[in-house]
Amino acid sequence: MASALCCTFTTQCKRVCLSCQSTQYNGGYPNNLVRVPVIILECLLSNASVGNHCLIVSLQIGEKSLFTKELENALERNEVDLVVHSLKDLPTTLPPGFTIGAVLKRENPFDAVVLHPKNAGKTLDTLPENSVIGTSSLRRAAQLKKRFPHLDFKDIRGNLNTRLKKLDEKDDFAAIILAAAGLKRMGWESRISQILSPDDCMYAVGQGALAVEVRARDTDILEMVSVLHDSDTVLRCIAERAFLRHLEGGCSVPVAVYTEVKDSQLYLTGAVYSLDGSDSLKETMQTAPAHHPFIQTQLFGVTASKISGPAQDGAERLGIDLANLLLSKGAKEILTVARQLNDAR
Known about the structure:
Elements: E1 3-10, E2 15-20, E3 40-48, H1 69-76, E4 82-86, E5 98-103, E6 111-115, E7 132-134, H2 138-147, E8 152-154, H3 160-169, E9 175-179, H4 180-185, E10 194-195, E11 210-215, H5 219-225, H6 231-246, E12 255-262, E13 265-273, E14 280-287, E15 298-299, E16 302-303, H7 309-328, H8 331-344
Parallel strand pairs: 2-4, 7-8, 7-9
Antiparallel strand pairs: 1-2, 1-3, 4-11, 5-11, 6-9, 6-10, 12-13, 13-14, 15-16
């Protein structure tokens, strides 16, 4: 997540300008967007996201919109008509007047281990005692500290290029943890040494999915991008975002999820963690989404008029019910202590 990529689309009816968070998507822009009926594509680079200027201070728990505000400002000023985000970077409550017009088919949502070249062939299990692992995520650190107590986890910041450079050119880290989807989009799958299973590390809400944010009043744009929606991804992400919102979480809280659609059932596993992973709660629930009439509605920032309204409602209810279950078992207390400890660092 570095600079923004700005693309200008000219259609038969109007000029459409797109902005997205990464300058280095393999191929120049998210490949699924070629399904939008465009005639001309013109790409420009804008300034780096503010989140990557803060290279020393780790992300605060609950910090919202850190990577999105600059792009939304351009959307508000009518400089662009679409903004493409990693969905995990979008808060569950969008600014007034904005909506997610499309959620693209999810890439691999799991986290990946990228090893220092000297550790080729190893896994997190086989790395030496006290090996230093770099991660910018409280969620990853909390889970992995519990799962791999022989390792030492430290902050690493910057875009993917910067993090890989820090890994390769110095001896500070034995490995770093990155989203597998981000590495794939950059064309760097060959750097992946290990994919972490849900037993090792569940992923962030929305991880692996791209979201197209638009102005809610722009019905032509909403209709144009609606063809990009992937129904299973939408339902999974609505459930995840409902879960996070009901926990009163933000983009950077130690909350993790795992969802799947299997045998007509939507499964959601959610968990909350203390910063060191020593205290946690984890539960799983499921629902059978009903596929009935299409309605135009917005749930947790997502407008999906071509996906069954009752199915979306069922996904939302699943996320809320799971959050309530964890809250009844003490999730609020775990997250409150985590916030306090992180603020004191």
